[in-house]
UniProtKB/TrEMBL annotation:
<protein>
    <recommendedName>
        <fullName>Cytosolic fatty-acid binding proteins domain-containing protein</fullName>
    </recommendedName>
</protein>
<dbReference type="GO" id="GO:0008289">
    <property type="term" value="F:lipid binding"/>
</dbReference>
<keyword id="KW-0813">Transport</keyword>
<dbReference type="InterPro" id="IPR012674">
    <property type="entry name" value="Calycin"/>
</dbReference>
<dbReference type="InterPro" id="IPR031259">
    <property type="entry name" value="ILBP"/>
</dbReference>
<feature type="domain" description="Cytosolic fatty-acid binding proteins">
    <location>
        <begin position="12"/>
        <end position="29"/>
    </location>
</feature>
<dbReference type="InterPro" id="IPR000463">
    <property type="entry name" value="Fatty_acid-bd"/>
</dbReference>
<dbReference type="Pfam" id="PF00061">
    <property type="entry name" value="Lipocalin"/>
</dbReference>
<dbReference type="InterPro" id="IPR000566">
    <property type="entry name" value="Lipocln_cytosolic_FA-bd_dom"/>
</dbReference>
<comment type="similarity">
    <text>Belongs to the calycin superfamily. Fatty-acid binding protein (FABP) family.</text>
</comment>
């Protein structure tokens, strides 16, 4: 059984401080040129919180857009992504990593989030395109 207690390390507010290879990753998942330009400039804040009945919220906020997903570990949910893809996602905890599997139009991308040295590292994987995005805690 996956408990929300293991989610504790992710809870709180995070700010993007470093982004590597994000352009290639966005190309791989099919994000258009204009959207990629905006996304590359954006420095999202990420907020993890827990709501009623163990529902976990992950809210990503930029000056352009706010996207929030609510999920229970191991349960599939519908998601409209920041680039307006309609996807089905599942979040699971594996060895301390929060792994998001996102499927749309027969494609799948994986986003692995983990805490390393007090930073939240998001590894976005689509085929050969891998982007590392580093977030630091905000008070």
């Amino acid at each position: 059984l996956q408990t929300t207690a293991k989610m504790e390390q992710f809870m709180g507010k995070w700010k993007l401080t470093k982004s590597e290879n994000f352009e290639e990753y966005m190309k791989a998942i099919g994000v258009g040129f204009a959207s990629r330009q905006i996304a590359n400039l954006a420095k999202p804040s990420l907020v993890f919180s827990e709501g009623d009945g163990g529902l976990i919220s992950m809210k990503s906020t930029t000056t352009f857009k706010t996207v929030e997903i609510k999920f229970r570990l191991g349960e599939e949910f519908g998601e409209i992504t920041a680039d307006d893809r309609q996807a089905k996602s599942t979040m699971s905890l594996l060895n301390g990593k929060l792994i998001q599997s996102q499927t749309w139009e027969g494609k799948t991308t994986t986003i692995e989030r983990e805490i390393q040295d007090g930073k939240l590292i998001a590894k976005c994987i689509m085929g050969d395109a891998v982007s590392l995005r580093t977030y630091e805690r905000e008070d």
